[in-house]
Amino acid sequence: MSPASVGAAMSLASFHDWFSWVVMVANAAAGGWALGAHFRQRLRGWPLWVFITLAQCTVFAQVIAGVVYENRSGSDPGDLHRLYGFAAIAAVAIIYAYRIQLAHRRELLYAGGSFFLAGLAIRAMILS
After folding, report:
1. How far apart are CA 86 and CA 78, in angstroms?
2. What is the Cα–Cα distance from 128 to 113, expressed in whole angstroms?
3. C-alpha distances in angstroms, 47 versus 37, 54, 116?
4. How far lies 37's CA from each of 13, 42, 101, in Å?
5. CA 2: distance to chain centroid?
6. Residues 98, 12: contact at Cβ < 8 Å?
7. CB atoms near residue 52 (< 10 Å)
8. For the whole model, what pTM was predicted?
9. Tens-of-pLDDT digits for all 128 residues of the chain?
10. N or C terminus of the chain with fewer C-beta within 10 Å?
11. Using only C-alpha atoms, what is the Rg of the chain?
12. Is the four-CA dihedral 78, 84, 87, 92 of positive or negative sign?
């Protein structure tokens, strides 16, 4: 591995570590907002859905960064760390799939789903 590749892998590792906090905080905040929106009509609207979408996009960015880092550095984060990352992507898909069937409880669906994503982020951070 060239010195430039080592430097790139180290900066990617730093980004992956730092961004894990962004994923956790964004999804926890999205869960709190969605839970509040379930009880308060004035908290609903397009800003909530934009924020939830951005929070869930952080999951994809984090997993992509982790996969690229693992491939470039050759490090092994462990099977459970990988499991939590890919489970988070699956959770986003499952939440999205249930949005029509639970339209009358959509805010609760996204609150629970966002808190679940934040929990997966915390668990993955503990494992690394």
Report:
1. 13
2. 23
3. 11, 11, 21
4. 36, 7, 18
5. 32
6. no
7. 24
8. 0.91
9. 566 666 666 789 999 999 999 999 999 999 999 999 999 999 999 999 999 999 999 999 999 999 999 999 888 899 999 999 999 999 999 999 999 999 999 999 999 999 999 999 999 999 87
10. N
11. 16
12. negative
In a 10 Å sphere around its CB, with 0-12 CB exposed, 13-18 middle and 19+ buried, how is residue 75 labelled? exposed
**AA identity, residue 127:** L
Q: What are the residue ranges of helices labelled H in the chain? A: 3-39, 46-73, 79-97, 106-127
Our measurement of the distance from residue 98's CA atom to the centroid of its chain's CA atoms, rounded to an integer in Å, reads 18
Chain centroid to Cα 20, Å, comes to 8
Q: Cα–Cα distances in Å, from 36 out to 26, 39, 44, 59, 124? A: 15, 5, 9, 22, 27
pLDDT value at position 66?
94
Amino acid at 43: L
In the numeric block, the tokens 């907002």 are attached to 33
